[in-house]
Amino acid sequence: MAKVIGVRFKAGGKAYYFDPGELAIERDDYVIVETSRGIECGEVCQGIHEVPPDSIVKPLKLVSRLADDADIRRMRQNREDEAKAFEICEERIAKHQLEMKLVDAEYTFDRSKILFYFTADGRIDFRELVKDLAGVFRTRIELRQIGVRDESKMLGGLGICGQPFCCSRFLTDFQPVSIKMAKEQGLSLNPTKISGACGRLMCCLAYEQPAYEYLSGITPGVTSYVKTPDGDGTVCEVNLISGQIKVRLDSAPEMPKTYHRDQIIILRAATKKAGKRKPQSAARQAAAARAKQEHAAQKPAAPKNAPSKNAEPKNPPQAVSAPSVADPSAENQAPGGENAAKTGSHRRRRGKRGGGKKQDSASASANVESNTP
């Protein structure tokens, strides 16, 4: 375990751990510490305590000293000068006609740097602006582009609940919030009702999400088939917070009754796609099962001796080889080869002419008719 103190540099800002060393530091004291931006004066929000080493961002820096009255006066003077620097920067932005909105200005404790925070839709070329501001303040200038959530955190305000913004009061880090949380909590999906002043989903949606996840796990969902003291039925409405469940009984579907989740036993849980179609009652499901069995019984069975599609035939047809064409070089070697070749060529000519005998008889008859007087 490491001994640390928590130091905050802005109201509602994040607390950073520092090593107190041998100093007797108490809560609400001001200390001088060294940060990545230089020497800073911060307020102690957490006294000396021990934390696990895994929760410390290394290296753990040592507290330089306790702040005296001169340091506190200097810090307050810096806050006053920040308001003047903010006005000057706004004038220079309007002069250069840059599409950016200035949010805040901040001096470092030793006045070696001024930080300007702004928001913009895209990238901004502010090189000329930086040169102009450096000529006015005679110190280092740094411009940082932030998001709309950080803007709300810096400016503060009142939410739709009437309370100051959570991010400017006690939230140190922004938690991820999704539209799924609003659906699980049964909220309206109207963007104007679930969005904060920054235009993003309200951070408070994440506060009760673990409780809703637990209640959803022990409560039957809509379209679940349950057992009640009055009989079986289908869940048609659920209230997770109060635990009241409205059930449409099979015996009286026109008059739903309300029960507590402790009085109900789940027989069949709801599915994700169950809400898209009307759930069937137990009687309808039983009738459908009987109809399916009767249809399977009426279907004719295949004969036992019927050959299967993949079975091979008992007497497969034999392959017939095509007659080979005689080689002309073998005519002189085999006896009768010349006559065989002539006979084959004569047959081929007859086949091409569509029957040689019929044509010969037709020509002969034509000659006889021409010779007769």
Write the layout of secondary structure elements.
Elements: E1 2-8, E2 16-18, E3 30-35, E4 38-51, E5 65-66, H1 69-96, E6 101-107, E7 113-119, H2 127-137, E8 140-145, H3 148-155, H4 166-169, H5 179-184, H6 191-194, H7 209-218, E9 225-228, E10 231-238, E11 244-249, E12 257-260, E13 265-268, H8 282-298, H9 337-353, H10 356-371
Parallel strand pairs: 7-8
Antiparallel strand pairs: 1-2, 1-4, 3-4, 3-5, 6-7, 9-10, 9-13, 10-11, 11-12
Helix pairs in contact: 1-2
Q: Characterize the quaternary organization of these chains.
A: single chain
User: Structural class of the helices, strands and pairings?
Assistant: alpha+beta
* Overall strand count: 13
Largest beta-sheet details: 5 strands, antiparallel
Question: What is the N-to-C succession of helices and strands?
Answer: EEEEEHEEHEHHHHHEEEEEHHH
Rg, rounded, reads 47 Å
Helix count equals: 10
- Low-confidence parts: 273-279, 319-346, 351-373
**Beta-strand residue fraction:** 15-25%
Cα distance, first to last residue? Answer: 141 Å
Mean pLDDT across all amino acids: 77
Strand order of the main beta sheet, please?
Answer: 2-1-4-3-5
Question: Level of helix content?
Answer: 25-40%
Query: What overall form do the CA principal axes indicate?
Result: elongated
